[in-house]
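help with these tokens:
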Amino acid sequence: MRKDSRLSRVLHILVHLQAIERPVTSEQMAEMISTNPVVVRRTMALLRKANYVTSTKGHHGGWKLAKPLADITLLDIHHALGDGSIFTIGLSDEHTQCVIEQAVNEALNDVMNEAEALMLKRFGQITLDKLGADKISSYLKEH
């Protein structure tokens, strides 16, 4: 099963935008996270729609933060990306009439819902300025 790494990739980009303090092109961001610029543009468009970033066209154009990272939570970004499932674990649906499959799916579903609720609650408590702040500070001092 393929994992969805959009959240971690977007967080990576947003922290870079804070550190760089100038517009960054989709091509530059794509290089940062080893993907295609088109993927970056599509993803960043979701963040622009939610007013977390802005973009300018032309020479010296690119993407930049629309608000400080201290005003954005992990939950905000999760919502902006479309509220995808936190977990990639899937429930079996091959034998829907089987009472054992139903019982297993019910138990797994309950646990995953509980875990997801707890995780989303924590996401709402963590602002992006807290992400690796100590590591970023020492990195910027070195470079």
Notes: Residues 6-88+127-142 form a domain with the Arc Repressor Mutant, subunit A fold (CATH 1.10.10.10). The mean pLDDT is 87. The radius of gyration is 19 Å. The beta strands are 53-56, 62-65.
